[in-house]
Structures are given as structure tokens and as C-alpha cells.
Amino acid sequence: MPQGPPQRDKDTRFGALAAIGLAGFFLVVLGLLRLQVLQHDELSRLADQNRIRLDVLRAPRGVIRDRHGRILADNQPSFDIVFRPAPIESTLRVRTVVASDWLARVSGAIDADSVEVRRKVREANRTGQTAILRRTAPYAVLVAVEESRSELAGLDVQVAPIRRYPEGVLAAQLLGYAGEINDRELTERAEKGYQLGDLIGKTGVERKYEEVLRGEDGAEFVVVNAMGKRVTTLDDVPPKPPVSGRDVTLTLDLDVQNALEIAMAGVERGAAVALDPRDGSVLAMVSKPVFDPNEFSKGISFARWKQLNSNGAFPLLNRAIQSAYPPGSTFKIVTMLSALNQGLVTATTHEPTTCTGGFYFGGRRFGCWKQEGHGNLDMVGALQHSCDVFFYQLSLRLGLDPLERTARAVGLGEKTGIDLPSESRGLVPTGAYYNARFPKEHWPRGLLLNLGIGQGELLTTPLQLATMTSVVANGGRPVRPHVVSGVQGVPTFKVEHPIEPGVQASAETWNAVHLAMRRVVEAGTAGAVRLPGLAVAGKTGTAQNPHGNDHALFVCYAPADAPTFVLAVVAENSGHGGSISAPIAAHVLKKVFLRDSTATAPRLPRPAAADTVGD
User: Fold this and answer.
1) This model's pTM is above 0.90
2) CA distance 278 to 217
3) How many alpha carbons fall within 13 Å on the CB side of residue 463?
């Protein structure tokens, strides 16, 4: 029986639907085939990335100890708030985590600047590395983060080592500090395995010995849930434990350092260095004002950083090696040594013009620090009483070249080579230096008068003054100042020996210099350093400062007959060396050599224009 039109339309529609259904089925089959066969490896990798996370295990830095094994820098655990970008989601999460509401909630929870949080999160999303948003978070912050982690994508808490300086401000500039790596450092050191959030030595020993102190980070694969929270470790791949950095032993003596810090407590700005002249070991180094390196371990705010660098005190500056001062009358040691070595004078030589308080040259009067004059002195007496008039005449006869050669031979005018970064070179002017600054290469000989007493263009660091004094104490043998004596696991580590020849001079020359320096203490301008039972040789200095009060300087070595200790002290804008810096040295010498002494830190007088204590 033939079908009518309605039945045919119904069959056609059913066939069409069946064809569509069959096509859909084949599409599903093809899709499954693509997912399970063709894209199996890629999807498996992405699934693992969503379930498994690689966590970096931060390596502790090496411990820094003093010469007796006492800890100066080590590590302690820190609970850090971090942002972890998930590899499969990082590009999708960018809009969420930089949105104003997410940033506001995160910044509020961790009490951090939202601009800095945004910058770190964006960098983490770009690199795929974990970003540390806040170090050493307090308990209240940790609770706030834990309560809101489910709502704040990527936020997590990790435990990592941070630097600890148990002595606080003690030897801060020498030790330096370790802080979070910045963008420039990260770019420079990316090939060495540095990552976001790493601690890196910024100054001092921490910076100079970064490659030694830095450890090798470990890693572990962890299983996370859908919220990115750690569930367990992945058993298939054992974790790689971190390897600590190498320990470093310094030449520093904590007892001497503490004594010098106490002695310098009344100095607002200045520096002091103690050396062992036998080998150049740095026993103590102080720079004022000080800072606490622990601040940088915990993360320092921009406001605090600005405060440290904007008040003119610059506590991060290591004045012992980075600031250069006119040496003042401490340089008369060099002038005397040079003249004796040239055969121009002997210990008993008298200059033609007796000191009556001034010396005329080139139509100008050059004054002596003692206005009433010193009278007729010989060479030893001139250094003992620091007579400017005697040294004016001696400098004119000596000339620039011998003076410059002797200055460089005792360690001035060039970097000492100490194993600390950013050392200043200082300045010892040469003939070429003056020829470039005066027309037709005719520079006035009157410049020699200022140079001979340690003024003019001369500039020296406190470390250079200590080095100079060590060479003199050694009878001309050079030394290389250094702060590290050994590195753990490096038996071949050794201190570089000085390549400078030192000063070749006769026994008579050295006897005269040493005698004069002893008399400076026994019956001269450094009476504050006369200590019963200890022979000290030294020299005071007062450096004129066009920007304020004079700088007070003092250098010395002890015991005078067999030196084992050298000290150089510079107190900025403080007055005369004999009344300011010499008492500082006396306090330290008592603590080092007269251990039964009950000496307290010196109370420094205010600088006065008419100070009665000499140069």
C-alpha cells in the first residue's frame, strides 16, 4: 500500500535526526581519540603540573665566625608569605591577581605596599618563579593569610632560612648584609641559578665572599589539591636536599672589636681600624654611625631605606675603607722617614729657622699649631712635639718626588688590596697631577709645605693609615690587610702576600723614627696614651676641614719594642687628635694589653677652637 505524504515526511525527519545523531557520535569518538591518543602526553603533563608542584628548598648561607670561633653571622628560620603561580593557570590568573580587590585584600592581609605586591606578582607570573611578598611574617599575619588562602589565589606560606647577626650592629660595615636579590642582580646572575626571592650579599664580607657563602638550593616535588595547597610529597621522585654554603673564619677578634666599638661610642662620624702588623690581619674595624644588618634580612621598607640614605650620615658607608681624609700630622712620619732615607737629616738635625709660631715663604705666613712656637728642636723633637715650622722647611728641601715615593711605599695612594668591596684609593699627588692643574707646568712650591704636614691634596683612608703604621712598626716590611683567614672545605685558601717592596732604610733611620714615635706618647702630644707597663709608639694628627670642625686622628703601635697591635683612629669634625682620638686608643690598648684594667669608655670633650692639647 503506497505511503502518503505525511508518512514520507516523518521518515525523512527521522533519517535526518539519525544522521545528525550518528555524526555527533562520530565527533565525540574523534574528540575522545584526540584527547586520549593524540594529545595524551601533553594533557598528562598539564595534569601533573596542576597536581604536582616543584618547590625550591632554600639553602642556608655559610656561617661567619671570628678568629676564636664565635658566631658573627648565621641563619634562622623565617615564615614567609609567598605567591606561587601555577604553571597551567598563571596566564589565566594574571587578571585576577592584579585586580584591585585581590591586591587590596592581599596587601591588607600581609601589611605590605600594594605597588610592591603587584610588581612581585607580575614578575612571578612572567617567570613562573615563586615571589616572596613578605619575610618573617608575624603570627597575626600568618593567621590572616591562612584564613583567607582559599579565597586568594596563589597565596602561600613557606619556611626558609634568613640571615641572623647575633651581635647586631657590631662590625656591621665589615660583615655587610645579605638582602633580597634585585632585578639588576637577577639579570646578571640568572645563569648562576639565582631566582626571585634569593638572598645575596650586598656589602662587606657577605658580598666579597658571596660565591663561598652561598649554598646550593634543593628541590622537592609536592602533591597539591585543587586550591594549590600542599597535600604530600611525591613518592616517585625523592627530594634533593639543600647544601649549606661554606663557613668562613675571619681574622676579627670579637673582644677587640667590642672594645673598639665601646671606645668609639662617643664619635658621631668616623672610623677606626686595628691590625696585627705581623701579617696584616684585621683585628677590629669600626665605622660610625652604625646600622643593624638584621633589618635587611627581614626585608626593609622603602621609607626605611630612604631614611638610612638621606640624612647625610650614610651608616651603610664603611668609612674605614671608603672615606678618605687628609692625614694631618700623622703624615709627618712619612716626611721624617723620607728625609732620613734621603740623607737630608739625622736624628739630631736642626732646621735653620727656629719655630716662633710661624714660617714665611713666598710672601705668606704659614702658621704652626702652637702659636707661641716650639723653639729650636731637632728631628726627633720635631716629630715628638709635631712642630709644623720644622716640617715646612724639611718639605721644601725634600721635594715632591721622594715624598711621594715614600708615601706609596708605606701603603698610601693606592688600594691596600683588602678583601672587602669598594675600597677607596685615596690620593698622593704626583708631579704629573700638579702639572695638569697649573698653567705651563709651573705649580707653586708652597704646596710642598702643606703636603709635608699632611694637608693639601693628600687623602688617606683609616685603613691606609693603619697599613702605613704597620709598615713603620715592621721596620719597612709591607703587609696586606685582610679579614678572612680560612674557608671551610678549602684547604688551599691562603691570603695573598703583598707585592710591594716596602721601605728599605738603615737601622739608624728606623731607630730614629721609632724613638720619635715613642716620645710622642711619653712626653709629646699623645700623653693620653701613656699607660703604665705598656710601651706605646704613636703620632697624633689634626686635619683641617673646610666643611666644619677639624678631624681628629691618631695612629699607634704596641708594644713598642715588639709590635703586635696597630691602631688608627679618625673622628670627624671632633677637634684635636691628642684630646679626642688618643683617649679612644688608650681605652682599647688597656682592654687588649692590660686586661685587669677597669677602664671605661673615654668621655670625649666638645671640639674647641682653643684646645690646649696639641696636634
Assistant:
1) no
2) 40
3) 33
Query: What is the three-class DSSP state of 71?
Result: strand
Let me know if domain 254-578 sits in CATH 3.40.50.300.
Answer: no
pLDDT tens, residue by residue, 357-375: 999 999 999 999 999 999 9
Query: For cell 521518515, what's the residue?
Result: 11
CA–CA separation, 293 and 342 (whole Å) = 49
Computed from CA positions of residues 35, 39, 41, 44, in that sequence, does the dihedral angle turn out positive or negative? negative
Neighbours of 588 (CB within 10 A): 29
Q: All 3 cell numbers of residue 39? A: 594529545
pLDDT at 364: 93
d(C-alpha 232, C-alpha 593), whole Å: 60
The residue with cell 712650591 is 445
Would strands 64-65 and 71-83 be described as parallel, antiparallel, or unpaired?
antiparallel
Cβ atoms of residues 293 and 177 within 8 Å: yes
- 329 catalytic per annotation: yes
Is 52-108+130-148+155-250 assigned to CATH 3.90.1310.10? yes
Does residue 597 contact residue 531 with C-beta atoms inside 8 Å?
no
Question: Which parts of 411-524 are beta strand (E)?
Answer: 484-487
Q: Which of 323, 329, 470, 485 is catalytic?
A: 329
Higher pLDDT, 166 or 92: 166
Task: Delimit the domains of the chain by residue range.
Answer: 52-108+130-148+155-250, 254-578
